[in-house]
Write a structure and sequence with these properties.
Layout (H helix, E strand, L loop, with lengths): L9 H23 L6 E12 L5 E12 L12 E9 L2 H9 L6 E7 L5 E3 L6 E7 L6 E5 L5 E9 L4 E3 L6 E8 L6 H9 L5 E4 L1 H8 L15 E6 L4 H8 L7 E6 L17 H5 L3 E5 L5 H13 L5 E5 L5 H12 L9 E4 L1
Parallel strand pairs: 3-4, 4-6, 5-7, 6-8, 7-9, 8-10, 10-11, 11-12, 12-13, 13-14, 14-15, 15-16
Antiparallel strand pairs: 1-2, 1-3
Protein name: F-box/RNI/FBD-like domain protein
InterPro entries: FBD, FBL13/AtMIF1-like, LRR_dom_sf
Pfam families: FBD (PF08387)
Length: 347
């Protein structure tokens, strides 16, 4: 039993009732479908409402559906939808389900497919988390959501984006792509161009390997609004990282995680000048999984000497024996700092 006594508005009760009615209708429809070719989908429907105590009340229900290509779904009142599809699914079935939810604002979608069809995402989205896995070439995504503010994409066997536009309001983006080939980087550059106004960017290890794994021109627009960058590196290379920082002129927070122990010889050219963000905006740097390689030490020395507004540099998860660790800490502690406010911390 849901207690509606403290809800603000009468229309809230109507919306809740509508949602529950649609839930019942789908469950009844699903029960009537029986086919070996149907796809089982778990749909979690969640609605949140403000109460007089300023708390958030949530109503969540979970439905197990057997979806066929002929199944018709209509959920025009839904705002938040979580979909986890078990087993392989054909993209037209996913599109049919999304088409029946024309006013979705937050979507969490996870599925496996070998279908090459395009995934058409609702234009009303404000938050999107999508996870797609494929054995072969993955499907293409079409996103045209002008109000989208948060996007989190994981795609295994990523090949390209079909159409991603009107992403100028995205303020936070997390990208985790495992591409078909690390050589052809144009699809990633195209996506980064569309996300050039984001303020918080997370680049997972496979995405970073794709972008910085080989020396190349970073042919995408500067992230002129980016304030916070989380980057997981497949290996550490200071020249490639500094090249990326040149594309982030007002960056304030940089969080680095080194994924592997030893970097290959990549041949990225040294940068002739310090990035603008390091000189004028960058106040916080965290470096996790620090291995003590010479390139890592040189990078920390560089940011300490060039970071005019740096306040905090944290070196964490240092994987070294105590003797070598002490020598490195002593060396870095003695580096002259451009910022008198800068505090160097070892975790």
């Amino acid at each position: 039993m849901v207690n509606l006594e403290n809800f603000y508005y009468n229309q809230t009760v109507v919306e809740v009732a509508t949602t529950l009615c649609y839930t019942t209708a789908i469950a009844a429809q699903a029960a009537a479908i029986s086919s070996r070719t149907a796809t089982t989908i778990t749909v979690a429907v969640c609605r949140r409402y403000a109460t007089r105590g300023r708390a958030i009340a949530s109503i969540r229900s979970e439905i197990h559906l057997n979806i066929q290509s002929s199944t018709t779904i209509s959920l025009p009142s839904l705002k938040i939808l979580l979909i986890d599809i078990f087993g392989y699914v054909q993209i037209p079935m996913v599109n049919a389900l999304l088409c029946g939810c024309p006013n979705i604002e937050a979507l969490d979608l996870k599925f496996l497919t070998n279908s090459l069809d395009n995934v058409f995402l609702p234009p009303t989205l404000k938050r999107l988390k999508i996870e797609i896995e494929s054995d072969e070439v993955g499907p293409l995504l079409e996103i045209n959501a002008p109000d989208l503010e948060y996007i989190n994409i994981y795609q295994y066997r990523f090949s390209d984006v079909l159409n991603m536009k009107n992403l100028h309001n995205v303020v936070e983006a997390s990208l985790y792509f495992v591409p078909l080939s690390y050589d052809f980087v144009d699809p990633l550059l195209k996506l980064l161009n569309n996300l050039s106004r984001t303020k918080h960017l997370v680049l997972r290890v496979s995405t970073t390997k794709w972008l910085l794994g080989e020396p190349r021109d970073l042919l995408f627009q500067d992230f002129c609004y980016l304030l916070h960058l989380d980057i997981i590196l497949p290996w550490f290379d200071s020249n490639s990282l500094l090249s990326l920082l040149h594309k982030c002129p007002i960056l304030q927070v940089l969080k680095i995680q080194n994924y592997k122990e030893q970097s290959p010889i990549l041949g990225w050219a040294p940068q002739p000048s310090a990035p603008n963000c390091l000189v004028s905006y960058l106040t916080f740097i965290q470096f996790k999984k620090f291995q003590g390689f010479s390139d890592e030490i040189t990078f920390i020395e560089h940011v300490l000497q060039k970071g005019l507004v740096l306040k905090t540099v944290i070196i964490a998860d240092i994987s070294l024996d105590q003797g070598k660790k002490y020598d490195i800490l002593k060396r870095l502690s003695n580096v002259p700092r451009a910022s008198e406010m800068c505090r160097l911390t070892f975790d």
